[in-house]
């Protein structure tokens, strides 16, 4: 390796099989190496309009305001929460993993009155449990996570939109980890706001967050107060609750930048936009349903392989995301030692876990570009070899044979 201070960057070859980031589609990386454009060049604004149209299809929505927030997935989450929540608003967060806690944390900073309901990690909520809480708490917003990678669970959302309509509640979900690998129908399910990220099933690098806003959510955001352009000293009283306390994340201003007004806000992250455009093209070219079916096929293959190796899986697998699996670390095995051996000997990364699952569960992803037969077989082969070398015995070869049979059965169906 060239270690001189002026050497070109040359990262090691890795197969990223954790809960994200994952290897980007090569097409996305090529698109991102394109030359830059000025932000009001008609070619650039044309690409921005294309991105809006592409992500409307990815999100299954007619929402005009479907665009990118520059920043990682958390930027999309924060932009929506900061723009929608007024101090004192009641919000309800059903927490079933780490990312539910993140929504609470951000809502607290927006000075919302935060209410939570919780289920143990590895489970999801029934629609009744959420409706009961809405009836009791009467929140202005319901903040949900669709797929929480911390637990690998997928919260069913399709019945929640109707409930929210009935009680006059705005309905948001963080679909960062689930979009592209599991069904999400923004309009049919009555969602008012959704945010996502690139580094999971969309197969790009983190750095942009696709978001979509319903007309109701747009109206809520447009009503918030803004500082007039050009005013230097702002005379706003303490507790001016109508003001959005962020310029960068004020989605009203972001809409004016992406919309026909083209009012200057930030400089759109051009290379990241090229990448996000390419990801959407790949997904729509494959077809949303076919892409979800591919994530299910390879997610199931990983599940069957892990079980055939004699390992236990984490959580209620009826509600598992297609694209990530929690694997119980066997008692006598040091999980970090296995991960290090996978990385150093095979160049394969699998994930650790947070909070109550730390040291107990590995998380293995099969998403985006890595929802492929080769990635699944390579990962299982390496994991079995490492476990065997640490004296954890497995029914030798059973995992790979089970997975090959799984793929053969699929080919026979096709
Ligand atoms: C991975 C993940 C994120 C990631 O946020 P970043 O800001 O892109 O790191 C957010 N939400 C969920 C549910 C995730 O699984």
UniProtKB/TrEMBL annotation:
Keywords: Aminotransferase, Pyridoxal phosphate, Transferase. It comes from the Bacteria. Residues 45-350 form the Aminotransferase class V domain. The keyword Ion transport does not apply. GO terms for molecular function: transaminase activity. Its cofactor is pyridoxal 5'-phosphate. This is Pyridoxal-phosphate-dependent aminotransferase family protein.
